[in-house]
Write a structure and sequence with these properties.
single chain, 9 helices, 25% strand, globular, binds adenosine-5'-triphosphate, binds magnesium ion
Length: 246
């Protein structure tokens, strides 16, 4: 049974259809990268999965249970299993690092503070921030802030992690430290769906790569297939351009 199955999913902003018939099956522990030109619907797909934008057709099945996005309880349950990290990390500026990571599990999930803090410290160690518990976001570099955002998402104990261009706002020197964190998580078998323009990274870390264009999936394949032997001209064209560009 797949961890996540997306079946003929469509979605729209107002009258504009932006996702058309998306079908994708993700096994537990897979790392799926979504690539494709700007505006192709990559972020929108993650937003629909999180229940931030309703689907107009099709369905999403999580752990064998179809998800009803019209049901608040269903969406809450889904968010218990999935966490998302955006490009803009949106840390709470008035809270230190440890509080940023612990606030949702304590206040929203109502878990015991002591246990949450112990876990948060371990997460911060894993993302290389063991010495920053009491720093405030404006005292951290962009890469460090992005890693706090990842730790904050992991503190929710997601089974599925959605990452939307989390290195796009970073200086090149900081990109690697964030990508190292993602690599470690991938090695630990957490299921990931990520959007990235870092093709070298996508190639290294992904079990499969999904090429999107105009709200549709053009092609899905292993990194070797997509980067070396794409079946669709649109994929070859996009991959060729982006590899030349970087
Ligand atoms: N909040 C919104 N309201 C209306 N239309 C939107 C909104 N967000 C995105 N769109 C439109 O939906 C389409 C898909 O956008 P989306 O953000 O999913 O693309 P993307 O593949 O993530 O692009 P990028 O690589 O630039 O981040 C685009 O045509 C975009 O203009
Ligand atoms: Mg996007």
């Amino acid at each position: 049974m797949p961890h996540l199955a997306v079946e003929n999913l469509s979605s729209a902003y107002a009258q504009q259809q932006v996702l058309r018939n998306i079908t994708l099956s993700v096994e537990r522990g897979e790392v799926i990268s979504l690539i494709g030109p700007s505006g192709s619907g990559k972020s929108t797909l993650l937003r629909v999965l999180m229940g931030l934008l309703p689907p107009t057709a099709g369905r999403v099945v999580l752990d064998d249970a179809p998800l009803d996005y019209a049901s608040k309880q269903n969406v809450r349950d889904a968010r218990d299993k999935m966490a998302i990290v955006f490009q803009q990390y949106n840390l709470f500026q008035n809270m230190d690092v440890l509080s940023n990571v612990t606030v949702a599990p304590i206040k929203i999930k109502k878990r015991p503070r002591e246990q949450v803090e112990t876990e948060a410290k371990e997460l911060l160690r894993r993302v290389g921030l063991a010495d920053k518990h009491h720093s405030y976001p404006d005292e951290l570099s962009g890469g460090q802030q992005q890693r706090v955002a990842i730790a904050r998402a992991l503190a929710l104990r997601p089974e599925l992690l959605l990452l939307d261009e989390i290195t796009a706002a970073l200086d090149p020197e900081l990109v690697n430290e964030v990508l190292d964190t993602v690599r470690t998580l991938a090695g630990e078998g957490i299921t990931m769906l990520l959007v990235s323009h870092e093709m070298a990274f996508v190639r290294e870390v992904s079990t499969r790569v999904v090429m999107m264009d105009k709200g549709q999936i053009v092609e899905t394949g292993t990194p070797a297939q997509i980067f070396g032997n794409a079946q669709e001209a649109r994929t070859r064209d996009f991959v060729g351009k982006i590899l030349r560009h970087h």
